[in-house]
Amino acid sequence: MQADTDPTQAAETPAETAEAAAAQETPALDPWEQLEAEAAKWKEVSLRTAAEMDNLRKRTAREREEAIRYSNQRLLEELLPVIDNFEMGMQAAAQDTKSMIYIGMDMVRRQLHEFLSSQGVEEIQATGAFDPNLHDAVAQEECAAGEEGRILRVTRRGYKLRDRLLRPASVVVSKLPTPAEGGAV
User: pTM for the complete prediction?
Assistant: First the structure.
């Protein structure tokens, strides 16, 4: 009870209260700085979200463009065996190039090639060195005049759709002759 009537305590209370309050506010941010920090945090979140949305928009547009660009790929892959059979028929009809059958088939062949070109399909060149990315080696034959790994002939044509491989060219590749075993009795 004596503490209630202590004169020193009553005199210190208003001044100490202001100093204590100031001491408590010094380590903590004032409300204005707290608001600025929170605004900076939300600004960073919104910038990141905007960047993510922009990346998503670009990726979606790129995927859509690619889907449109290669939408006919499956159809063209299924058309290639038909073209192969047609080419075999052309070889058989080529014995009489003056016949109406050959002339008609030749017109159809030109239309097919024009159609394939308009769709972005091109034939793979199967000359020179063997490239495993474009060619499928179905056989090897010895070749005395030449080097190993050269394409000797094409057994089935290969095609690309723009920069994608539709079907590799099937080729016969050269190999060096096997040395004859000498000294056999």
Answer: 0.62
Q: What angle do CA 106, 109, 112 make, to 5 degrees?
A: 155
- The CATH number of the domain holding residue 143 is 2.30.22.10
Q: Quick check: is 30 in a domain? A: no
| Number of domains the chain contains | 1
Contacts of 51 (CB under 8 A, 6+ apart): none
Cβ 175 vs Cβ 142: under 8 Å: yes
Which helix (H) or strand (E) is 160 found in, with range?
Answer: strand 159-161
CB 165 within 8 Å of CB 134: yes
Report yes or no on 32 lying in a domain: no
Dump strand ranges (E) for 41-149: 121-123, 135-142
118-152 residue pLDDT tens = 999 999 998 888 999 999 999 998 887 768 888 99
pLDDT above 90: residue 71? no
Question: Does residue 46 lie within any of the structural domains?
Answer: no
Average pLDDT for 29-36: 87
pLDDT value of position 63: 93
Name residue, tokens 């005049």. Answer: 145
Is 43 a domain residue?
Answer: no
Angle between helix 73-93 and 100-118 (nearest 10)? 160
- The pLDDT assigned to 137 comes to 93
